[in-house]
């Protein structure tokens, strides 16, 4: 079996002492920052991205992936213990997890979240291993027109899954694409939108934009009204769930895994949607729906499994097509490009050790989380008590070092401040930053493929609809747009996001 | 009734997008547009800028019809101290060197919070600088100069 020899290669790569070490560091750092107040996974990765640049490509991507799961896990911990989801995808966990903690079952809730996540992570790692290769085969036949259409699908889905107004999300995509085009035009060498600053000729630094829009903007938002946080439980005991808890969690975990795996593949950020979908399903099928919101085991187990499964399968479009499914994946693309790897179907063919190593490390990372975090929970709880005003100077210092170390370009630091300001203004105007970042990453690729496709077709725009795969993809994009604008869906969508806030 | 009342958030948002769109469209127009067959450097940005203006106008129209919640509290003090921090680091990291640049960057950022006491800020910044030197210069071996030429060292 190809699958097994590939997985063997992956595990051989991922279990090298060096990679295990970086996976561990990634998971620990991710959890640490995920637990700290006010910083989500995207901001965490954006800030820690520069640390990984000095490493080998495989180690660096493994570490980044580890940070991602770690931050997700840390987010659930804060959701359960202080009712403050560190991540939007663990917002659902806060509903019932916090109630369980109030009833003195904090330990059980944390364990259920960890075990559910681990199970979902295991299943979805295999799904990635099974589905990635055939998808790569298909993707290898893609031409410029198909790539263009595929990216359109990605951008449209990110709009569908953004909070709030759809028109604003569309505008954010357009703005992101424009910002992505800053720099030298690849065909003619003309500098574009660089304000005459030579340092911007290579384009705006991706890390600087991401740190500004996600990291700095988030800090400013947290500074609006500083509140003291009260930790509900200072000492967590009774980590092992009871037999009834186990019985109550089996079915929700299974359903959550299925829902999460499917929704995670959708470009545009499936993990959040997966968690909500799972919660809704659990509430519908439950014999005692009145328990939900009062500390139902299923309300923690289902969504936690679903968001972890979704986080995992969102690697499928990244690894096979080079298309990011969410802002975190956009950061991974940025990391790959900086490491000199062109994301896309060729990665699996040309660098099998990297490709399978990352897949194998996902499972190892999840295992480490379960093994390490349950005993370390006391430490994480202590961290929750660190006041915010001590944290953000540290964050600012590390952001500055990190961004500067990428290219030793001081103009990147000015971009951080500028995009921090822009990011904050946009947040205040209720515009979601995720579509902007996605547009920023895809901007140059989108333009390149558009221009190439038009040259190949001798200026005939119908090429996008006469090639079957491209036409199919554009049809999907159109369908998604029509669906989000349908009045009934629009209303439902608003409800979902209101609940989340 | 008061028919000319706008939702401030959307009004600002729409105007911002329209103005940004106009700026990019103007800049793109200065570049060579080219044809659909052989697109010049300005073609795709010009289309995007027009799209951005269109979305801005739609948001403006919505601003007149739908009313949302007000913008709310703005972190003026945060912006005043947080945003200059990376700029200061950029201006001084080569001249002053890594150690003083980082120390003052952290110190500036510290004052973004009204709860930070001056002494705590100094201690925190110093500890942070020591830690960062250990990790980045000795640990990761990044090529930063600890003290720069401005100090005459």
Architecture overview:
The complex is a heterodimer of chains A (501) and B (153). Chain A has helices spanning 2-14, 17-35, 41-48, 57-82, 91-102, 106-140, 144-160, 166-180, 206-224, 243-265, 270-285, 297-313, 315-321, 327-338, 346-350, 352-383, 388-407, 410-428, 433-456, 463-466, 468-485, 487-500, and strands spanning 183-184, 191-192. With 501 residues, chain A is an all-alpha fold. Chain A has one domain. A two-stranded antiparallel sheet of chain A has the order 1-2. In chain A, a hairpin with a 6-residue loop joins strand 1 and strand 2 (191-192). Chain A starts with a helix and ends with a helix. Chain B has two domains: 8-65; 76-151, no CATH class. Chains A and B meet through helix 8, helix 9, helix 17, helix 18 and helix 19 of A and helix 1, helix 2, helix 3, helix 4 and helix 5 of B.
Helical coverage of chain A, percent range = over 70%
* Assembly category: heterodimer
Nearest-angstrom radius of gyration of chain B?
A: 24 Å
Beta-strand content estimate of chain B: under 5%
- Please trace the helix and strand order of chain A, writing H or E for each element: HHHHHHHHEEHHHHHHHHHHHHHH
Mean pLDDT of chain B: 84
Number of helices of chain B: 6
How would you sum up the global shape of chain A?
A: globular
Helix content of chain B: 55-70%
Ends of chain B: how far apart? 72 Å
Features:
heterodimer; A: mainly alpha; two-stranded antiparallel ribbon; 22 helices; 1% strand; B: 153 residues; 2 domains; 0% strand
Topology:
The complex is a heterodimer of chains A (501) and B (153).
Chain A: H1 2-14, H2 17-35, H3 41-48, H4 57-82, H5 91-102, H6 106-140, H7 144-160, H8 166-180, E1 183-184, E2 191-192, H9 206-224, H10 243-265, H11 270-285, H12 297-313, H13 315-321, H14 327-338, H15 346-350, H16 352-383, H17 388-407, H18 410-428, H19 433-456, H20 463-466, H21 468-485, H22 487-500
Antiparallel strand pairs in A: 1-2
Helix pairs in contact in A: 1-16, 2-4, 2-16, 3-4, 3-9, 4-5, 4-6, 4-14, 4-16, 5-6, 5-12, 6-10, 6-12, 6-13, 6-16, 7-8, 7-19, 7-21, 8-19, 9-17, 9-18, 9-19, 10-11, 10-12, 11-12, 14-19, 17-18
Chain B: H1 8-30, H2 43-65, H3 76-82, H4 84-92, H5 98-110, H6 118-139
Helix pairs in contact in B: 1-2, 4-5, 5-6
């Amino acid at each position: 079996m190809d699958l097994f020899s590939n997985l063997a290669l992956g595990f051989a790569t991922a279990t090298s002492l060096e990679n295990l070490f970086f996976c561990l560091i990634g998971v620990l750092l991710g959890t640490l920052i995920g637990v700290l107040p006010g910083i989500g996974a995207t901001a965490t990765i954006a800030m820690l991205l520069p640390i990984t640049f000095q490493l080998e490509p495989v180690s660096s991507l493994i570490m980044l992936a580890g940070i991602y799961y770690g931050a997700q896990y840390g987010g659930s911990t804060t959701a359960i213990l202080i009712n403050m989801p560190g991540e939007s995808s663990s917002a659902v966990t806060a509903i019932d997890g916090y109630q369980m903690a109030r009833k003195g079952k904090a330990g059980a809730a944390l364990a259920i979240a960890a075990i559910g996540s681990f199970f979902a992570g295991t299943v979805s790692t295999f799904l990635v291993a099974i589905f990635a290769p055939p998808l790569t085969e298909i993707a290898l036949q893609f031409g410029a027109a198909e790539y263009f259409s595929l990216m359109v699908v990605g951008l449209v889905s990110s709009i569908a899954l953004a909070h709030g107004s759809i028109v604003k999300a569309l505008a954010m995509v357009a703005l992101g694409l424009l910002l992505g085009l800053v720099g030298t035009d690849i065909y003619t060498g003309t500098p574009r939108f660089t304000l005459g600053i030579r340092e911007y000729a290579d384009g705006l630094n991706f890390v600087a934009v991401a740190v500004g829009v996600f990291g700095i903007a988030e800090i400013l938002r947290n500074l609006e009204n500083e509140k003291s946080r009260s930790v509900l439980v200072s000492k967590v005991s009774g980590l092992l769930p009871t037999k009834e808890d186990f019985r109550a969690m089996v079915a929700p975990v299974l359903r959550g895994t299925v829902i999460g795996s499917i929704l995670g593949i959708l470009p545009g950020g499936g993990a959040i949607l997966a968690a909500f979908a799972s919660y809704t399903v659990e509430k519908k099928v439950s014999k005692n729906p009145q328990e939900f919101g009062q500390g139902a085991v299923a309300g923690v187990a289902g969504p936690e499994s679903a968001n972890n499964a979704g986080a995992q399968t969102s690697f499928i479009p990244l690894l096979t097509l080079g298309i990011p499914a969410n802002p975190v994946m956009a950061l991974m693309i940025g990391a790959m490009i900086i490491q000199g790897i062109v994301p896309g179907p060729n990665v699996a063919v040309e660098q099998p050790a990297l490709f399978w190593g990352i897949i194998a490390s996902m499972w190892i990372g999840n295992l480490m989380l379960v093994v390490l975090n349950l005993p370390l929970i006391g430490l994480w709880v202590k961290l929750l008590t660190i006041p915010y005003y001590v944290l953000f100077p540290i964050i600012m210092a590390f952001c500055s070092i990190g961004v500067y170390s990428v290219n030793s370009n001081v103009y990147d630091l000015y971009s951080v401040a500028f995009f921090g300001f822009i990011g904050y203004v946009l947040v205040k105007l209720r515009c979601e930053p995720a579509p902007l970042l996605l547009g920023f990453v895809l901007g140059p690729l989108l333009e390149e493929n558009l221009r190439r496709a038009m040259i190949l077709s001798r200026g005939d725009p119908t090429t996008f609809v006469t090639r079957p795969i491209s036409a199919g993809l554009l049809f999907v994009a159109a369908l998604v747009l029509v669906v989000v604008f349908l009045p009934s869906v629009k209303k439902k969508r608003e409800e979902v996001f209101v609940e989340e806030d | 009734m008061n028919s000319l009342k706008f939702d401030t958030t959307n009004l600002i948002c729409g105007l911002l997008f329209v103005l940004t769109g106009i700026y990019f469209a103007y800049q793109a127009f200065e570049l060579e547009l080219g044809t659909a067959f052989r697109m010049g450097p300005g073609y795709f940005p010009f289309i995007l800028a027009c799209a951005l203006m269109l979305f801005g106008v739609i948001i403006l129209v919505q601003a007149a019809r739908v009313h949302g919640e007000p913008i709310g509290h703005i972190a003026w003090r945060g912006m005043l101290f947080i945003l200059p921090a990376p700029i200061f680091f950029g201006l001084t990291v080569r001249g002053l060197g890594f150690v003083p640049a980082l120390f003052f960057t952290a110190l500036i950022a510290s004052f973004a919070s009204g709860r930070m006491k001056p002494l705590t800020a100094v201690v925190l910044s110093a500890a942070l600088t020591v830690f960062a030197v250990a990790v980045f210069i000795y640990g990761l071996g990044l090529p930063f100069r600890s003290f720069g030429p401005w100090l005459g060292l």
